[in-house]
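Late entry, written up from scratch paper. The run itself happened at the end of the previous shift, but nothing got recorded in the book at the time, so transcribing now.
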Amino acid sequence: MIRIPRTKITIPAIIAVSILSISLISYSPMDVSAELDKFIIPEISGTISISDGSQDFSDKANISLSVAMGAAENSVEDGKAMWGKLDIVQGFLVYKIAVLTSDDIFNMVIVDAGNAEALYVSEGVSKENWKHSRHSDSESHKKWKDHYADLTPEERELKKQQWSEVKNAFFALSLDERAKMIMHFMSMKTQWNSLSDAERDEKKQEMKLMMEELLPLSLEEKTQKLREYINSL
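Output as recorded:
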C-alpha cells in the first residue's frame, strides 16, 4: 500500500528536493517524470486491473515502491533505480521506474504492481540524447547553467565532480532509503506549488546556501548526511 504523507517543508527538506532535482547529472526527477510518459509501451498484461477514470488507486498496489525499484534494477545490467511512480498503463496498475547505469544510460522499466514482474524494459537513452531533448532547454536547466557561468573551467569541473558525488551518495543508499526520499519528494512537490513567489524565492536562497555547505563534503560524508536526513523523516 502506497500513501504519500503530508509533510511541512523545512530547509532540510528543500535540500532533499535539490539533491533529487539537480544532482543526478542531467537527469532531474522533473525531467525523468516527464520522460517516463514519453515512451511508447508495447502491449502488456498486468495482474491488477483499474477501471477507466479511476483517480484513487494508491492503495491498490500489492508491492511497495522499493520492491518495484529492486525488480527494475534486476532488469537492467549495472542499473540503479533513481525515480519511480505508481501509474496506470493500458488499464493495469504498474510502477514506472527510471533506472540509470554507471555510464549514464537511462532506461524505463514497467513493473507490475501486483507481483513485481518487469513487464517492459525500454531501450537505453544516452546522456547525450537526453541533453538534446526539449527538457534540456527548460528554465530550470538554464538557471542552473547561469548559476555557474562566472566560474573558471577548473571551478566548473570541481562543481561537476561534487554533484557527481551527490549522485553517487544517493545511489549508495538502500532501495528502501531511496524510495522513502522519492515519496517524500513527491509530497513536498505538491506543497511547493502552493507557496507564493516570495516564499519560493526565500526557500531557494536558503537552499542555495546550505547546498554550498554540502557540496565540499567527501562522498562518505554526503552519504551520511542523506542517510541522517532520511532517518529523520
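The chain has a mean pLDDT of 78.
(Scratch paper discarded after transcription.)
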